[in-house]
Here is the input.
Amino acid sequence: MGQKGLLQKINGFYGLIGPNIERKKTKSIYDLFMGNGIVQGVFIEDGSITYIKQEVETDKFKMEDHYLRKRKPILMLPIPNILGVANTAFFHFKNKTYALFERDLPYVIDIDFNQKKMNTLGKCEIEDIAHFSAHTKIRYSDDYSYIETIDYDLLQKKVKVYQLDPYFRILSTLKIPMKYAPMVHDFISTPNSIILLNSPFMADIHLLPHFSAKIKLDVTKSSIFYVVERENNRIERYYVDQGIYIFHYTDVYETEKEITIYAPVHPSLDFSKLEIKGKYRKLVLNKQTRTVQIEQNPELEKWNVEFPVPFYHENKKKIIMRYVDETNWLNTGFVICHKLEFEKHIRFQGRCICGEPSVLTIDLDTYALFFTIDKDDNGYFNVLNLMTEKNEEIPMNEKMKIGFHSLFLPNMNAI
Ligand SMILES: [Fe+2]
Here is the structure.
């Protein structure tokens, strides 16, 4: 099927959210976290696409716009959350879309299919909550779906788990004291339990010759999984025999004896550097010994992966992840696996993948939608058949940025 024919079958919006910073000026993971959120996306309709890019108008963005970009006179503007950059992930629930960052509240954004635009509608104030996880979950049930999110307190060494109703009103709060100052990007939410990883970080602070603070994983200490049973709020700790960090989880299976988790695992991490190394591994939490066994497949160990996206093909749950070529530190292609079985890799010559793909099933075929850039940062929109590996690449005729997470929204007007 040609590009036009394939695009004819898609009616919706693919968006990628990330920091509005120059790729070549990015030196560390901090830089990525601190850039103002920008949404780059395409509206796909009647076989053609419309590209948009729009910054999320956070309180921080509006203040910078007022003083720095428009150089307007000083007003009594409220001091914004300087960490509030809304640059990490989307959240879509009850026909509303939000831009998230883990040290701020959500921003409501409007993906306008008629005007083919994105607008920021405003910050979503939530009573008694300061921060809303970028990996907030929806717990679906037949009669009542609710939101589950977390906030972490570095000084008090606590994670708070919140359940919220569809109007963002708190239904319940659970405080979990932790051993180390927690920095929790993602968590696991199952019908029976909530699982959080507490990783040991150390601060390397220098005052001279100039102030610098490096936060890195302390690999000499043990990371600890906290498993909270929903039924009675009992907390059990499971010890890993090394310091690891996990940004994203893909899979969890629970039996009477163990809990099995799959994820890209980071055995080292330094926020002052850009090079991160994720290895896709299986972690088995043993309910008798309260220890964690990490299993690996040598074929998968060759790949430095992150941003896992699950999809189903022929009744099998598979994971697609972008991989980094460590000779040039560019996101060169994708790895596909099923549990710890390596299936294949798909490489894009002369291209760097901008961020997380969205996976769609069209006429029983499975496609990944994503953006790439060339060496000069010129952007392309791609529709990749994950089985045949045939890739349709459409030039955007625009410079593009690297992003983090994505979403695909079907055009409900067309249904
Ligand atoms: Fe994330």
User: Anything to note?
Assistant: The radius of gyration is 21 Å. The pocket of fe (ii) ion is lined by residues 88-89, 134-135, 185, 247-248, 404-405 (CB under 6 Å). The chain has a mean pLDDT of 92.
